[in-house]
Amino acid sequence: MLILHIYKEDTMRIFVSALAALALVSLGPIATGAATTTATIKLNAQNGSGENGSATLTDGNGGVTVVISLTGAPASAQPAHIHDGTCADLKGVAYALKDVVNGSSTTSVPGTTVAALMAKPYAINVHESAANLGKYVACGELTASSSM
Predict the structure, then answer these.
(1) CA–CA distance, 46 with 148 (Å, rounded to integer)
(2) Element (H, E) at 38
(3) How far is CA 110 from CA 20, 25, 64, 105, 127, in A?
(4) Which DSSP helix (H) or strand (E) runs through 16?
(5) How far apart are CA 118 and CA 111, in angstroms?
(6) 3-class DSSP assignment, residue 76
(7) pLDDT tens digits for 34-71?
(8) Cα–Cα distance between 30 and 45 in angstroms, integer?
(9) Ranges of the chain whose pLDDT falls below 50
(10) Residue 146: its pLDDT value, please?
(11) CA dihedral in degrees (6, 8, 10, 11; nearest 10)?
C-alpha cells in the first residue's frame, strides 16, 4: 500500500509540473508586446514668439497620438495643424490638431502611423490665434533628421 501511495503522489507532482510548464510556454507570446514607435520633433519659435518646445508622436490604437508641449505660450487657444510641406514652405492642412492651450495639446490622429508621417514632407505648425492664422509662432518638420 505504501508503494502505491508514493506512486500516486509522484504522478500527481509530475502532472502538475508539466501543466505549469505548459502554462508558462503558452503565456509567453501574450506577455510580450509589440514595440511602440515614437518620434519627438523639436518645435522652434517663429516670428519672435519665444514659443519653443516639442511634439511627441506615438503609434497606437489605429493612429498616432500627437502631444505638443510649448514653453512661453499664452493661456489662450492657439490652433495647431500638421501641414504638407516644410516650415519654410507650408502647404495645406493635412491633419487638424487640437488647439494648444497653456502650452499643451494632445490629439489622436486616426488612420496613419509615425512612419507614414515621417516619410513625407510634413510640418507641425502652431498659429498665434484663430483670429490671426497667418502668424506662425512655432514650427517643426516631421523628418527622420528632425527627431530629437
Answers:
(1) 19
(2) strand 38-45
(3) 41, 35, 6, 16, 22
(4) helix 2-31
(5) 14
(6) coil
(7) 556 999 999 999 999 999 999 999 999 889 999 999 99
(8) 44
(9) 1-6, 12, 14-16, 18-33
(10) 56
(11) 160
Taking alpha carbons only, the member of 111, 84, 112, 82 closest to residue 97 is 82
Domain spans of the chain, in order of start: 1-33, 38-146
Most distant pair of Cα atoms in the chain: their distance: 93
Identity at 110, one-letter amino acid code: P
User: How confident is the model at residue 72, as a pLDDT?
Assistant: 94
Question: In this structure, what C-alpha cell is assigned to residue 78?
Answer: 492657439
> Nine-digit cell at 42?
523639436
| Three cell numbers written together for 65 | 497620438
The answer to whether 122 and 94 have CB atoms below 8 angstroms apart is yes
Q: Which amino acid is at 33?
A: G
According to CATH, the topology of domain 38-146 is Immunoglobulin-like (2.60.40)
| C-alpha dist (Å) from residue 71 to 24, 86, 89, 147 | 48, 22, 24, 18
Tell me the C-alpha distance between 85 and 93, whole Å. 9
Q: How far is CA 43 from CA 50, 77, 100, 123, 142, in A?
A: 11, 17, 13, 10, 10
